Automatic annotation (TrEMBL):
The keyword Nucleotidyltransferase applies. It comes from the Bacteria. Pfam families: DNA_pol3_delta2. This is DNA polymerase III subunit delta. It comes from Paenibacillus campinasensis. The lineage of its organism: Bacteria, Bacillati, Bacillota, Bacilli, Bacillales. GO terms for molecular function: DNA-directed DNA polymerase activity. InterPro entries: DNA_pol_HolB, DNA_Rep/Repair_Clamp_Loader, P-loop_NTPase. Coiled coil: none annotated. Its EC number is 2.7.7.7. Keywords: Nucleotidyltransferase, Transferase.
Length: 328
C-alpha cells in the first residue's frame, strides 16, 4: 500500500507528502470523514512512507521497512481500535508502555487509533497527556468519522486532515476493474459510502437476488395486476430476503429515480443500467410528480420499518402505492 494505491483524497495525499518532503511531519494527525473513505489505508501508507529507506515522500514497497509494515510486524507501528464498544484506558496505557522505548532506527514510532471517537473519557484524557508529553519521537494518527466528537483539547493538538466520501463513478470504475458485475456495482456504489462497504454487499449472495426481486416487483406493480403482493409473499417473506427489507426499499427508491432520469433525458445516470430499454419504455407510465411520490413512499416505508412496523405491511403498502398511481 502506497499513496498511489489509494483512490481519491488528493488533498490529503498532497498535505502528507508535502510534510514528508519538507521534513515537517506533525506529531499528531486527525483523519476525519465518512467511513470507507480510505482513512486507514492512508494512515498505513503514511506510516510506510515515514519508515521507507528508499523514497522521500512515499513507500517503495520493496525495502525491509516497507515489507515489515506489509507483513504486519513492524516494531515501530501499533494499531488499536475499540475493545468491544469503546477504547479503554488500559489500551492507552499499554500504548504508552510500548512507546516508552526509543526506536532502533532513525524513524519515529507511529500509532494509529481507529474509531478514536469511541475512547472513554478516561482513555481520552490519558491520550491527551501522551500527546502533550511523548517520551520518544512519535507520530499519532487518530481516525474518526466525526472528529468533533473528540475532546476539544485533543482536537486542538492535532493537525486535521479531512476525508470526503468517494464519488460513485470513481468507486464504480475500480470495482468493475476488480471483476464485480457492472450492473451490481452500479447499485452498490449508490448504497455504500466507501469501497469497503461496496465490496461487503457485493460479496453477499443475497444482494444480486434481492435486486432481481425488486426488478420483478417493480414491473409487476406497473401492470396493476395485484400479482406483486403474491410475488412478495413467496419470494421475500418465505425466504431469507425478508431480513434485508431496508436494502429493498433503498433499491425501490433508485428504481423510481431511474424513471425520472429517463423523463429528463439523463440515461447516462441510470442505476439499473441493464434495464435501460424497459425503463425507457415505461417511464411515461407516471408523471414526474407521481414518480417523486413513489420515491417518498419508499422512504416513508423504510422509516416505518426502522421504527419496527411490521415489514410485510410496509412492503405491501409500497407495492400498493406503486400500482395505484394512474397516468396523469
Amino acid at each position: 500500500m502506497s499513496f498511489n494505491d489509494i483512490l481519491g483524497q488528493e488533498a490529503a495525499k498532497q498535505l502528507l507528502q508535502s510534510a514528508l518532503r519538507r521534513q515537517a511531519v506533525s506529531h499528531a494527525y486527525l483523519f476525519s470523514g465518512p467511513k470507507g473513505a480510505g482513512q486507514t489505508d492512508m494512515a498505513v501508507a503514511f506510516a510506510k512512507a515515514l519508515f521507507c529507506t528508499e523514497l522521500e515522500d512515499d513507500a517503495c514497497g520493496q525495502c525491509l521497512e516497507c515489507r515489515k509494515v506489509e507483513h504486519g510486524n513492524h516494531p515501530d507501528l501499533t494499531m488499536i481500535g475499540p475493545d468491544g464498544a469503546s477504547i479503554k484506558i488500559d489500551q492507552i496505557r499499554e500504548l504508552q508502555r510500548l512507546f516508552s522505548y526509543r526506536s532502533e532506527h532513525r524513524n519515529p514510532k507511529v500509532y494509529i487509533i481507529e474509531q478514536a471517537e469511541k475512547m472513554t473519557t478516561q482513555a481520552a484524557n490519558s491520550l491527551l497527556k501522551f500527546l502533550e508529553e511523548p517520551q520518544v519521537p512519535v507520530v499519532a494518527i487518530l481516525i474518526a468519522e466525526n472528529g468533533q466528537a473528540l475532546l476539544p483539547t485533543i482536537q486542538s493538538r492535532v493537525q486535521k486532515v479531512p476525508f470526503r466520501a468517494l464519488p460513485p463513478q470513481m468507486m464504480e470504475q475500480m470495482l468493475v476493474g476488480e471483476g464485480y458485475p457492472h450492473a451490481l456495482v452500479r447499485c452498490a456504489v449508490q448504497l455504500a459510502s466507501g469501497l469497503e462497504g461496496c465490496r461487503k454487499i457485493l460479496n453477499e449472495n443475497w444482494f444480486a437476488e434481492i435486486r432481481n426481486v425488486v426488478l420483478q416487483l417493480g414491473k409487476e406493480s406497473l401492470n396493476r395486476s395485484g400479482s406483486a403482493i403474491i410475488t412478495a409473499s413467496q419470494k421475500v417473506f418465505k425466504t431469507e430476503l425478508s431480513e434485508h427489507l431496508d436494502m429493498m426499499f433503498s433499491l425501490f427508491h433508485l428504481w423510481c429515480k431511474d424513471m425520472i432520469h429517463v423523463q429528463y433525458g439523463r440515461k447516462e445516470s441510470l442505476v439499473f443500467i441493464d434495464q435501460a430499454e424497459y425503463i425507457s419504455g415505461h417511464a411515461s407510465a407516471r408523471s414526474t410528480a407521481q414518480w417523486v411520490s413513489c420515491m417518498d413512499l419508499a422512504a416513508e416505508c423504510q422509516k416505518k420499518l426502522r421504527y419496527n412496523v411490521n415489514g410485510q405491511l410496509c412492503l405491501e403498502q409500497l407495492l400498493i402505492g406503486l400500482g395505484g398511481n394512474t397516468p396523469a
